[in-house]
Amino acid sequence: MTRMAAALLLSALVGYLAGSVGRPQARGQADPLGTPAPNIPPVANPPLFPDEPNKPMHWSADDLRKIHAARAAFQRANPDRPTQGGGGALPPGTPTFQGQRFRTHNIGTNFRAYYEQERPANLTGVMSHYDDVEQHEGVSDFYVITGGGGRMIVDGTIENREYRRASGNTGSTSLLLPGEFDGQPIKDGRTYTVKPGDWLAIPPNDPHWQLPTPNEGMSYLLLKVNVGLYPGSIAR
Amino acid sequence: MKHLANLAMVAVVASGYAAGHAISPAGIIAAQRGDPNVVNGQHQPPDFKSVIPAPQLRQPVPMWPNQPKDATHWSIDDIRAAHEALSAADKSGKKVEPNSTLHHFPYWTRTHSLFIYHTPHNQAGETAHQHVGYSQFIVVMGGTGSVVAGGQLQKPSVLVEAGRPIPGELRGSSIAGGETFSLKEGDWVSIPPNTPAQLKADAGGLTYMVMKVNALLYPWDLIR
Question: Where are the domains of chain A?
């Protein structure tokens, strides 16, 4: 009788373990932070969101050079002005750059400057001649240098690394952006001297840092490809 | 008696399975398995300097074929040399694979790819293309020419390779109603998915790099 009871107990245990292992993970299961996973049904033809005019666009190399010249001149006249986001208003007659933003990728341009006087860096606020290093877990960057030049440091690791905050890092405790990191300098990176026309492909999660030439700055195409990790904008 | 015992054992195994299926924490454990920043059961983002914890990304997402680990740099001197080599081959009637003229080409990943193309002057055939599943970003490497983009593909047909139709890949003789842009070195063109485009070269040929961005419709490589 004892052997019979032990066998039944063992059978119940075997059944319980088999049931535990065979249990499928439910959709919408809570994750470690307690946020339910979105239950997104498959879509046959996903929308290219946010919608852009679904039309081809052309950018002339001449216009890109003029935009850089105007940005560099504006920066020389306003040497302490932060350049994150491409610089300020340009004089009348300067060609405008119309970018494109899709669910899968963004097309834009950017301008960086060397600051003669050290100033709080654009994101972390450390004193520096340069804007901060960036690292994006969910985005591949493709650069085409369109004006000016300098050095690009890539790969390696970011020293003094922080999460990026939605409203900039200086003195703020605002929302942290997952997968977005800033800091400086880069340790054990590779340095490339870059000039107009050069290309750079920066894979996801790879630190990259622009060190523009003094008085000249650096303008570049910034084509960002969403590698599928970020649910939101990849504009950063 | 023995028959009854066997029956009881099967019933107990079945009820044990049902209990395990219903109440075990295995599903929750599976949901946590993807977090690379868990240490001793706690989510620990690196170099944390805020009072607000960062939400985590959903991992792992396969990056197939491999996303490169390191960055790649191409100098304008090498880019121009690639065009010169292709243009010279064109003039001498030699066939040169465009992607062999620049290091790290073709470059392709799960999400996007980079390919070099060279269009000779007066190229014949079905040179108007329409790709349903990817966007194109074109950088002109050398030469001059034009692109007609938008409008309607004329005499469209589905591409056939090795006797098999390739869904989403359309070819045509020309484009009606598109917009025409002149092209030279350093120009860029963006062509949305499912938009016809036809590139034509002046004398000396036109060399260009196409970044193809997967619009997440194609499960296969972005090589066409």
Answer: 61-89+96-226
Residue B139 with chain A: CB contacts under 8 Å:
144, 199
Which member of B50, B67, B191 has the closest CB to residue A176? Answer: B50
Phi, psi (deg, nearest 5) at residue A2: -65, -40
From the list B15, B16, B197, the residue facing A56 with the nearest CB is B197
The answer to whether residues A136 and A204 touch, using CB atoms and an 8 Å cutoff, is yes
Put simply, whether A22 touches B (Cβ < 8 Å) is yes
What was the ipTM of the complex prediction? 0.75
Q: How far apart are CA A235 and CA A220, in angstroms?
A: 15
Question: What residue ranges do the domains of chain B occupy?
Answer: 1-61, 76-214
What dotted CATH number matches B76-214? 2.60.120.10
pTM of the shown model: 0.74
Quick one: tokens of B48? 């944390």
- Nearest-CB residue to B20 (from A15, A54, A142): A15
The sign of the CA dihedral B63, A210, A100, A83 is positive
Interface test with B, best of A23, A141, A187 (most B CBs within 10 A): A23
Looking at residue A181, the DSSP 8-state letter turns out to be E
- With cut-offs at 50, 70 and 90, classify the pLDDT of residue A126: confident
pLDDT per position as a tens digit, B157-208: 999 888 888 888 899 999 999 999 999 999 999 999 889 999 999 999 999 9
Instruction: Give the residue from A51, A58, A236 with the most B CB atoms within 10 Å of its CB, the best one to mutate.
Output: A58
pLDDT digits (tens, 9 = 90+) for A143-181: 999 999 999 999 999 998 888 877 655 555 567 777 889
> A123 - beta bridge partners?
none
Which CATH entry fits the domain spanning A61-89+96-226: 3.30.1490.20, 2.40.50.100, 2.60.120.10, 3.40.50.450? 2.60.120.10
